[in-house]
Amino acid sequence: MQQHHDPGAQVAGQQGLQRSPQWPMVAGEHLQLEPVCRACGSTDNLQVHHVLPFHFCILLGRPELELDQRNLITLCEGANNHHLLLGHLDDWQSYNQEVRLDVAGPFYGMAGASIRANPAWQTEEKKRPPAWAQMSDAAKAAFRLLMDTLYPLEGATV
After folding, report:
1. Sign of the Cα pseudo-torsion (93, 98, 102, 104, in order)
2. Element housing 50 (H / E)
3. Does residue 61 contact residue 22 with C-beta atoms inside 8 Å?
4. 59 DSSP assignment
């Protein structure tokens, strides 16, 4: 079951942005396709997480990525809080572009406390990307390139 609070919407709200009215439907469809936490297999306290934050996508001219299933992954909150730890590198203002690799590999099945104690995660956490407000223009351009590489527009070449 998905929780009612929405940290992504709260962070986006700081930029004056709101979720698409279609978001609840898309999130529900995603949970039908991926009904367990990809980090531990839990079916409790699920959140649909954007691999690349939807507000970054909107601010950089790709608002459709908020609703694009390729940019979504299911993570749990609660005891393990894989949403915060692996999806946001323990900071709601940040993101983890390697979340798919992390949940499939080194951190799969680990409890939150074990992840925090893991030296590999501690190294990754220290390299977390900055919040939007702290990003330089060069970092925003690099993010746009990453976004277009991961999720090309139909008919576009990167």
Report:
1. positive
2. strand 46-50
3. no
4. H
